[in-house]
Design a protein that fits this description.
The complex is a heterodimer of chains A (about 400) and B (about 120). Chain A is an all-alpha fold and about 400 residues long. Chain A is about 80% helix and about 0% strand. Chain A is globular. The chains are: A mainly alpha (about 400), B alpha+beta (about 120).
Chain lengths: ~400, ~120
Amino acid sequence: MKRLVEIALGVVTGIGGFLEAGSLATAAQAGADFRFDLIWAVILGAACLAFLVEMCGRLSAISKHTVPDAMRERFGFRFFMVPLVIMQLVMYLVMATELGGVAIALQLVSGVSYRWWSIPVGLLAWALLWKGTFGLIEKGVSVLGLVTLAFVVGAFHLHPPLADVLHGAIPRLPSHDRAHYWFLAVSILGASISPYLFFFYSAGAVEDKWDVSHLSINRITAGAGMGFGGIVAIGALVVAGVVFHPAGVKVDSFEQLPILLTSALGHWGFILFVASLAVACFGAAQEIALTSAYLMAQGFGWRWSENLPPSDDARFSLTYTLMTALACLPALLGVDVLKLTNISMVVSAASLPVVVLPLLVIMNDRRYLRDYPNGWFANTVVSAIVVLAFALAVASFPLLLTGGG
Amino acid sequence: MLLVRDVLDKQMVDRHGNRMGKVDGVVIRWADDGAPRVVYLEAGAVTLARRLGRRLGHWAAGLAHRWGGRHTESYRIPWNRVRAVTLELSVDVDAEETRVNVVEDWLRQHVVEHIPGGRK
């Protein structure tokens, strides 16, 4: 019974945690510009994430190491600095995006500019970390995150032609706007395969003292959680494909997006959209702030736990405090949140090899995984998707810089 | 046991099981009989900076000299205090009695406890 609850919670975490500013915005843009043609990118991203989450859980259960612990130990401090610095920069961009997303949700209901909301939102996120525990944050975020299922409900309400949706699940070459198509494909991959998610997951597995007996829970949680999570993102893409594509709408701000759900679900759609955006982005922001602190603490051997009061792990709690404070700045300064989202997602995709390839080396090292190392299938799938995301991201940089995204 | 593979960069825990930094460096000395011996493990930012580059090391040592008061070098733990090298490296010291947590303690007293909710 206890195991069932754990599995349910794990799956709920996957569903509730999948959608955030990046995956929502990129799905909406993809649906608007290419109808259902980019569904395959969401599937590829979710599959890759599922593999990575499973690996990190397995690493923690078998070796009792978190990912940063293992990376520093296996590759040494000099090498470890590379993923550390790159991940902190990427997480900063993504966290600023998420806080911006919450602020925009509040602007949509209040009419007060998102710039004014960034500080209260940041303060609230910080206060919950400061006083809350790991369980509260993880479970609270994931249960509330179920509101994002509204996109799946919305997609069904609009009766999209099922054959076309299934057709979109097959990767294809673009029929028009080639550069823009690949740019959106890599944005979707970058949004789905978020390193912060699997680092957070590995810290959680160590905090919850996982062992060999958790391996099956881990597999189910990763597969079902990320699978259903991917379906939420596909829901958003399908809704945008039905609502925006025929009308020729170009998505150039978050403020356009509530129409997605109001056209499917009426007035309730607006409320559900705002709630989804706010909850999903808020949850992601908290997980990123914590991951940033985990990464430092686990990399430098500090005391760490989200279950300790801040006075017992001062450096850990000040790291997430600083991260949250700095991440409020872009929205406060009035940076365009959608542009920030697109930049963050491409940069995130470009950073993947630095983080994922060392992880794969560790996952094949029997000193850590003993009798449970990676199989060739997981190795191949993850390396292929990560290399693809990296190549597309590098190719997209010129487009990103010229603002043509 | 291999020093770089099994000791360097490992998590250290004190005798109460509290995390107390990583093994940032290993100090080896040539004994009178000419054989190299591990004498200390080092934990501290100056050691880490040295591992990143000579110039960065000089710079970190300079900073430590200016602001670190009496302590300008990384904290050293004698090798004979090492109790076990398994998943973690356990050393027979009490972290509270060493200066390995001086940054942690300073931040707690001067920053965390001044933030609402920061006191226990």
